[in-house]
């Protein structure tokens, strides 16, 4: 049987039409309610990475549970589903990167205090092999046993808890107003599970037990998801060292002119491409790590831990062991960002160097053009002088022919004398005409 989901309520006629996402956003606050757990109980959690795993794959796997053959894909669209089966419940939760399966069942006989590492998997109520066939890759597997106990017998109870975990060193806390004890060793056992033990005072409500279980299981799941960024950060360390050294070398070579700008530009482009590729490939992982780490801190704060005698609290353990890993991831992300910014500044310096070199080349070219224009003006002046002489020669020749014609008509004209006398006038006239043409051309520009 599927647990009842929040019923969508249609807007009254007095309201404007609903935004398409209104109901989904409103019901998000109820999306993952805590289970109600009756003590004593065994909670088995398996979280798997769901990359490449579709909802249909997960629906098909849930259909292998007794009586769930008719389970539809529509029932998995809200990323949360609780199935009530015969004497136990199975909760399915799909997140961005992982999916959690939680099984809540009565505590098997012989699994309580006074035993040492009881065989819990032998009493799992799901069909044989069902856990191992969950689609995905396991990222967290936890067995949480919740018992009622008289917490007044503190030292004796702690010894029994250590015997139950078969550990001499454990971490544990008293949890806020519920006063329940949470004790664990945070170790992977031979069966692939880690174990947690909750000892709650008599009278603890089912709702309170459910909230305690949810917070403890979320702390451990989010811790493991946060740590997924650590191997990435470690693998990037040598890459970042090499990139920073190469960038320092490129920056040093900018101070000399022994290396061409093209060679520097080619190396800088290659370095920038490698850094940007690493940023694009791992920025999500680093952001997700920070988000998961924040969730761990938030869930630990919600536990409102109090210290147990001679036992380190869960929060103190996490701060001591998880904080360095998160600092490494944050430092790597910051180095990537800083390296990208430094490459951008080096690119700006190289661009300035190229601009200065280009400016120098432009000045040399301009000087050559200016010198060429001066030569052209001189040549033009020489040509103009020859042109004036040539035009004047043709004009004088025409005047000479005219004077000879007049002499042939019987007029008293000496052609040679007349032409010679008119030479200065012709030269002046041609020169003056040329000047007027120049003045008109310059006035037009």
**Which overall shape is indicated by the principal axes computed on the Cα atoms?**
rod-shaped
- What share of the residues lie within helices? 40-55%
Which runs of at least 5 residues are low in confidence (pLDDT < 50)?
Answer: none
Give, in order, the helices and strands: HEHEEEEHEEEHHHEHH
Q: Indicate the structural class.
A: alpha+beta
Give the assembly state of these chains.
Answer: single chain
Computed CA radius of gyration, to the nearest angstrom = 46 Å
Question: How far apart are the termini?
Answer: 93 Å
As a percent range, the share of strand residues is 5-15%
Number-wise, the strands total 9
Largest sheet: 9 strands, mixed
Neighbour order of strands in the largest sheet? 2-3-4-1-5-8-7-6-9
Helix count from the secondary structure assignment: 8
Q: Indicate how many domains the architecture comprises.
A: 3
What is the mean predicted local confidence, pLDDT? 85
């Amino acid at each position: 049987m599927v647990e009842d989901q929040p019923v969508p309520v249609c807007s009254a006629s007095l309201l404007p039409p609903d935004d398409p996402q209104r109901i989904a956003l409103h019901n998000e606050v109820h999306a993952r309610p805590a289970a109600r757990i009756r003590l004593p109980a065994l909670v088995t959690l398996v979280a798997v990475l769901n990359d490449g795993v579709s909802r249909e794959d997960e629906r098909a796997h849930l259909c292998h549970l007794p009586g769930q053959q008719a389970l539809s894909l529509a029932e998995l669209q809200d990323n949360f589903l609780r199935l009530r089966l015969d004497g136990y419940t199975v909760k399915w939760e799909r997140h961005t990167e992982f999916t959690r399966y939680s099984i809540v069942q009565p505590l098997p006989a012989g699994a309580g205090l006074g035993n040492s590492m009881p065989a819990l998997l032998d009493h799992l109520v799901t069909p044989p092999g069902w856990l191992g066939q969950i689609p995905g890759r396991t990222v967290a597997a936890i067995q949480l046993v919740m018992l009622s106990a008289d917490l007044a017998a503190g030292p004796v109870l702690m010894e029994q808890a250590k015997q139950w975990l078969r550990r001499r060193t454990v971490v544990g806390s008293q949890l806020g107003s519920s006063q329940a004890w949470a004790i664990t060793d945070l170790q992977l056992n031979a069966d692939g599970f880690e174990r947690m033990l909750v000892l709650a005072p008599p009278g603890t409500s089912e709702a309170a037990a459910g909230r305690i279980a949810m917070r403890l299981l979320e702390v451990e799941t989010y811790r493991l998801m946060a740590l997924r960024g650590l191997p990435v950060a470690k693998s990037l360390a040598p890459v970042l060292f090499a990139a920073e050294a190469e960038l320092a070398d490129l920056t040093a070579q900018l101070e000399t002119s022994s290396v061409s700008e093209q060679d520097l530009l080619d190396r800088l482009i290659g370095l920038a491409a490698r850094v940007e590729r690493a940023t694009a490939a791992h920025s999500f992982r680093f952001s997700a790590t920070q988000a998961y780490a924040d969730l761990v801190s938030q869930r630990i704060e919600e536990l409102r831990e109090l210290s147990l005698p001679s036992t380190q609290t869960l929060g103190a353990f996490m701060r001591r062991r998880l904080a360095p890993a998160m600092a490494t991831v944050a430092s790597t992300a910051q180095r990537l960002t800083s390296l990208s910014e430094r490459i951008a500044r080096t690119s700006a310096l190289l661009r300035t160097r190229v601009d200065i070199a280009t400016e120098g080349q432009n000045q040399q070219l301009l000087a050559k053009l200016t010198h060429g224009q001066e030569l052209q003006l001189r040549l033009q002046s020489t040509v103009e002088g020859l042109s004036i002489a040539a035009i004047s020669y043709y004009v004088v020749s025409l005047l000479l022919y005219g004077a000879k014609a007049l002499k042939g008509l019987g007029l008293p004209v000496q052609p040679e004398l007349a032409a010679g006398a008119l030479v200065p006038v012709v030269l002046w006239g041609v020169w003056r005409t040329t000047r007027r043409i120049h003045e008109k051309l310059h006035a037009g520009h």
